[in-house]
Structure formats: structure tokens, C-alpha cells
Amino acid sequence: MRYIKHLITLTVLIVFTNSKLLSQSLYVGSITEDYYRRAQLLGLADTNVSFTVRPIFPKLSTSQSLDPFYPEINPIKADLGNSQWQGQRERRTAFLVLPFSINTQYNSNHPYGFNDGAMIPAKGFQTLIGAGVYAKLGPLTIQLRPEFVAAENREFETFNDDQHIITFARYYDIYNNIDLPVRFGEKPHNRLSWGQSSIRLNFNALSVGVSTESLWWGPGINNSLLMSNNAPGFRHLTLNTLRPVKTPIGSFEAQLVGGRLNNSNFPPLIARKYYFERDLYFPKPDDERYLTGAILTWQPKWVPGLFLGINQVQQAYSKNLNNVGDYLPLFLPFSSASAPDNAINEKERMTSGFMRWLWPREHAEIYFEYGRSNNIKDRTQTFLSPNNSRAYTFGLRKLLPLSKQSGANVLIGIEVTQMQENSIDNVRAGKQWYVSNAIRQGYTNQGEVIGAGIGPGANMQSLSVSWVKGIKRIGLQLDRYVHNNDFYYYAFSDIKDTGRHWVDLSAALNGEWDYKKVIFNGRIIGTSALNYQWYNKIYNDLTFKNGRDVYNIQFQLGATYRF
């Protein structure tokens, strides 16, 4: 109740603040953020911005017609890279009211969904509220946008008790090494966090500060291998560019972060399991985890619209940080000599390279990200076995204009993400993306994966078709989501006739619609979960019959009010 009172007080102050100055930043996951990426395909937004280092930081404006959260009345090309502001006098002081947003979702049978920030995987209703203010005093900027989430967190069926105890033991072999609980306790979940907040010092194109904002690295739309808004944002120090920095060989965008990650403090499963009177669950250590990461994107001046980049993250327990190289392991995917493919000095590292190619004349884009998990082999071994511990995302989008008079378009998008390990030795050893024997919370924050929301060992294929006109959009998306195939092969590899994998087939009707100062968003997702939770009834001869299929309906409804 104390958190709710504080949030209500903050909301009242915001609503009655008399200010016509509007928002400055496009936080990850906002509706307007994807609008500007679509506008790039039509040449209506700054095509020098890569959308691989997010959030985006447009310049402040006192005019509603130039405000980034009012793209539907913007008379000029959206100035995401601030190029339109050269020669104009910038305000030294400002006070802005950030948009107020409320989003509610409901899952009928079991948790489903990802890339929802502070929300948790839960059955039933949950609501996320965000609001705040922004202040500027010379080079100092302060953005306070706390978020409050409240979830029913109702009981649902998890890993079924009919599974063989050996299967349970193998389940814990994996999920003892990643902080990925199926259910966040047995009580309703309420949490007030700093959300999309930051304090920064800005100097021309550079910014340094402390932040809890969600980050997204790489070109993916549904999944990003290293950094996304699937988990809540974490506290971090940041040094980043505010706009592309031009050089004789092209422009660059970059970010360097270092921060602390938090545990969920929940076990993988609520009911404890015992094997030969031994508890299968091993609690994770309470040691602080330190995450450092960097991303660099280059747009070659000779190929307009092409963005090439590399990013890397490394996490370690604070007690194992001994020198500057431990805090800032910048783009070091190789060791100096051949080494076994496991953790060195209790550290875990992931590296990926990516490409996004924007074609405004064709109203299309293509993108790709390829990553390696904890790759510390020498260069020779890496090139001899490039598929070892690899993951990738590939996608394309194209706009098909319906008519010049209406301004409407059809948007077609395809994205494929492959997280499944293809090394038999790694599968047998229980090695997966985001899972770690050295850092037993894995690559998570507050119980959710920081990278691709589909999680370790998973694969996903998506097809979307939408009608779009400005910020308005109505679309259909079809997904095929294979849950943790690495665990499937690890747990059932020695049992014949294991039946089907756990596969979700989903169809979603979604859209956004603006009306005056409000943007409404909604989504209805129907999911058929085949062999839910890898369930199969075991027989005495160690064969299985067909698993159980369950169905889930998810409703999402939200609104954003722009002051």
C-alpha cells in the first residue's frame, strides 16, 4: 500500500504540472520508437541512426510539432540524430513532463510473453504503470520515470510430478545454474522500481551518467542476443553517444556500461524435489554480480544505410574482479592460447557481431546478428568450429505502399532466432546460452534473461503482416516457439520414443491507435502449447505416450498519455 500511495502522489503531481514542454527520450519498448524505425523505411526519419544502440536520444524541443512523442504531426523528417538542430540555440534549462503509460495483461492458463520490462512471467492479471519528469540544467539532465508493477501471480501447472525422478534431476542440473524460476513465489507480486530513470552529464555527442533504463543492443526486433528489455533494467554506469559521431570514414555509435545484477531469490520450482534423500535444489550464492558490456556500431561513409557492429558482455562475481581488464574486457573474444571451452577465473563472456542494412528506396531493411557464448578458444579453433556455442538472429522488413493519397502501407516482417546448441558434447555437459556453472544465476536480472526473451536452448520463427498509417498500426503475427531444446535432448536423450518437443504455436492480433494526446495499444494472443512443460506419461519400459496440449489466451491493453 505504501508503494501505491507514493505512485498516486507522483501521478497527481504530474497531471497538474503546468508545462508545455514534452519528452526528450525514446525509451526501449515505447510505441513511438518502432514508429520511427518504420519511418526510416520510407525515408521520413533520420536514416543515419542505426537503431542498434538504444534508447534513442532526440534533441529537446519546446514545439509540439517537433516533439519526438508527437510524430503524427511532425512536419519535417524526424530528427533522431539531431542533425536538423545544428546552428540552433539549445535551451540550457528545461522541465518536461514525461508521458504517463499504463499497460495491463492477462494470461488464462500459464505465463506467456517476453520483452515486457518490469512485468514478470505470471498467470492472471498484471499491470505496469510508468510516469515521471525530466529536468535539464546546462549539461546536467535528470530523468525520473519510476515504474510500478502489480501481478496476481496465480497458481498454474509447472513441471509435472508424473515426470521420472531422473528427469527432475536433469532439470535441476540446468536450472540450478540459471536464475529462471517458473513462478515468482506463491503470493501476489508488487514492485516499485526506478524504471526508466537516469542522471547524466552531456557534452556534445557524449553522455556519462548512472541509469536504470532498459537497454537494447543489436538490430533484432523480437529478440536480441546480448541486451534487451526482456528483464527489468538494472543499475549501471554508462558512457554513450547521444547521436552518430561523424568521422572521415563514416559515423559511429557506441555505449559502455558497468552495473550490478539482482537475484530473484526464488527456486526453479515451488515444490522441492529429492533424489536419494538429497534436495535437488542448490540455492544460488548471494555474492554481488558485476556486468560490463560495450557495443560499437559503424556506418561506412561509402555504403549509405549499412550498419556494422560488435558487442560484448561479461559478468563475474565481485570477489573475482582483480584488475582493470576484469572491469573492462572490451571485445576480447579470444584467449592468447588454446584453452578448454569453459569459464576462466569464474567469468562468463558473450560476444556477437551484427549487421543492419537499410534500403529507403525499396522501403526495406535486412538485419543479422551472430554470437558466441563464453568463447575463449584460440583463433584457429574458433574458425575451425564456428558453430560451437553459437546463436543467431536473422530478419527482414518491407513496407508496401497502398496509395500515395492515403499514406497507408502494408508492413511485412520475418524474424528467425536460433539459440539451440548444435554441439553434442556441449548438450551432454549441460552447456547452454545464458546458463553458467561459474555464475550460477546465469545471464539474468531479477529472474529473467537479459538477452533473447525466448531463453536458453530455444528457437523462434515469426511472421508479421500489418496495416500501418503513421503511428496507427493493425497487424497479425504468427510465431513458432520451441522451448529449450538443449534441455530436451539432455533430459531425454537416453529414453526411446520421447514424443514431441515443447512447441508453442501462437497467433496474435495487435495494434496501436492514436487519438489526440493518447496512444492506445492492444493485443490478443492465442497459444497452443504442444507437449506443455515437456510432459509425457512414462511407462515401465521407459517409453512415452503423446504429451498433453494446453491452450492460453493473453489479452493486453494499454494507453499512453502525452502531456
Give an account of the 3D structure:
The protein is mainly β. It has one domain: Beta Barrel (Porin). 10% of the residues lie in helices and 39% in strands. The chain contains seven helices and 27 strands. The strands form four sheets. The protein has an 18-stranded antiparallel β-barrel. Helix 3 packs antiparallel against helix 7. The longest helix is centred in the N-terminal third of the chain and has 14 residues. It is globular. The N terminus is likely disordered.
Give a short overview.
This protein is mostly beta strands and 563 residues long.
What structural keywords apply?
39% strand; 563 residues; disordered N terminus; Porin; mainly beta
Strand fraction equals: 35-45%
Estimated helix fraction = 10-25%
Name the CATH class.
Answer: Mainly Beta
The mean pLDDT is: 84
CATH architecture: Beta Barrel
Head-to-tail CA distance between termini: 27 Å
The number of distinct β-strands equals 27
Which of globular, elongated, flat, extended, rod-shaped describes the shape?
globular
Number of helices: 7
How big is the Rg? 23 Å
Structural category? mainly beta
Low-confidence regions: 1-23, 60-65, 83-88, 333-345
The tally of domains stands at 1
Named CATH topology: Porin
Biggest sheet character: 18 strands, antiparallel, barrel
